[in-house]
Amino acid sequence: MLNDTRLLTPSHLLYRALQYPAINGQEKFSEPILCPLCGIETWEGVKWKVTPRFSDLDLFAEKENIKFLCPACYFTLNHILDLHKPYLLNPEGLHILQFDDQTEKKVKLGKVKKVSRYYLMDFLLNSPTHEPWVLMLQSKMNPQHSLIRAKVNFGYSDTLWVSDGTTPHAIPREGLESLFDCLIKVKKSTGLYPYLYLDEPPRKEHKEYELWLELEPILSKHRHAHYLSFVYERIIPPEKYMVEKEKGVDLHD
Ligand SMILES: [Zn+2]
Predict the structure, then answer these.
(1) Which residues, 6+ apart, have CB-to-CB distance to 69 below 8 Å?
(2) CA atoms of 201 and 198, how far apart (whole Å)
(3) CA 136 to ligand 1 center in whole angstroms
(4) 150: CA distance to ligand 1 center in Å?
(5) How far apart are CA 128 and CA 156, in angstroms?
(6) Which of 68, 161, 175, 201 would disulfide-bridge 45, Cβ 3.0–4.6 Å?
(7) How far is the CA of 210 from the centre of ligand 1 (A)?
(8) Which residue ranges of the chain lie beneath pLDDT 70?
(9) CA distances from 247 to 118, 186, 240, 251 (A)
(10) Any idea where the domains of the chain sit in the sequence?
(11) pLDDT of residue 252
(12) What distances in angstroms separate CA 126 from CA 1, 71, 122, 141, 191, one per listed residue?
């Protein structure tokens, strides 16, 4: 049960996760207005004007006469830099992900959560259904309004939404474990990468032909899906990382 459905909206989930930080210039209205960004009714707002530099008006539910934003949307728009990080967002907090082969992160918003590169796979295989969450990864250099475009996961749905910046990827829950196993084997292989996307089989003399035969029934189910390259590149750990972990090498040194 979700007792506050606003938490299904990314900005409101963030605002709750950070325990409703007060904002300078926050006003109380005598009657509620609809926030032009999220479209949710609010009794409080912060003055906001579309500046000429603001190019993301398509984010808004309402495009004209924008005078106020709800505190959650105002807060989110104002922290575009602090949100340009990989994170897990849920009602308990904003957990900035720091992988164990990365240097220490300093964050202004939320708390650092140190995890292995296997964390993303493990999380998706056991993702919570009782609370809303957003999983955000970033591959672009420039900060964008990525959280506002993210989709909030909640309940037991067929699809897990994971964002790469402003692009949310819809990953199917069914068959995910076998897809992950399969992609790990491709990543550790020496010559099967092209067959991730190729419909044609390798030649019988290919030294990994047997492995391809094993993986192809799974690969063929996902081959032309939009999420395949994202899962392969961003969710499956880097090959070097997996090999060194198996050898027990401490990746910090
Ligand atoms: Zn709003």
Answers:
(1) 35, 36, 37, 45, 46, 48, 77
(2) 8
(3) 20
(4) 14
(5) 8
(6) 68
(7) 54
(8) 1, 250-253
(9) 15, 19, 11, 11
(10) 5-78, 87-172, 176-247
(11) 57
(12) 19, 32, 6, 30, 31
Which residues, chain by chain, have CB under 5 Å from ion ligand 1?
Answer: 35, 37-38, 70, 73
How far, in Å, are 44, 99, 158 from residue 8 at the CA level? 19, 27, 17
78's tokens: 């104002």
Cα–Cα distance for residue pair 119/139, rounded to 1 Å: 18
For residue 19, the CA-to-ligand 1 centroid distance in Å is 16
Q: If you measure from the C-alpha of residue 83 to the centroid of ligand 1, how many angstroms do you get, rounded to a whole number?
A: 17
Q: What tokens does 89 get?
A: 């967002």
- Confirm if 162 and 135 have CB atoms less than 8 A apart: yes
Please tell me the distance between residue 10's alpha carbon and the centre of ligand 1 in angstroms: 10
Q: Tell me, in angstroms, the distance from the centre of ligand 1 to residue 225's CA.
A: 33
Instruction: Please answer whether residues 219 and 213 qualify as being in contact, where contact means their C-beta atoms are separated by less than 8 angstroms.
Output: no
Our CA angle for 133, 242, 246, nearest 5°, is 125
Task: Give 157 Cα–ligand 1 centroid separation in angstroms.
Answer: 25
Phi, psi for 132 (deg, rounded to 5): -75, 150
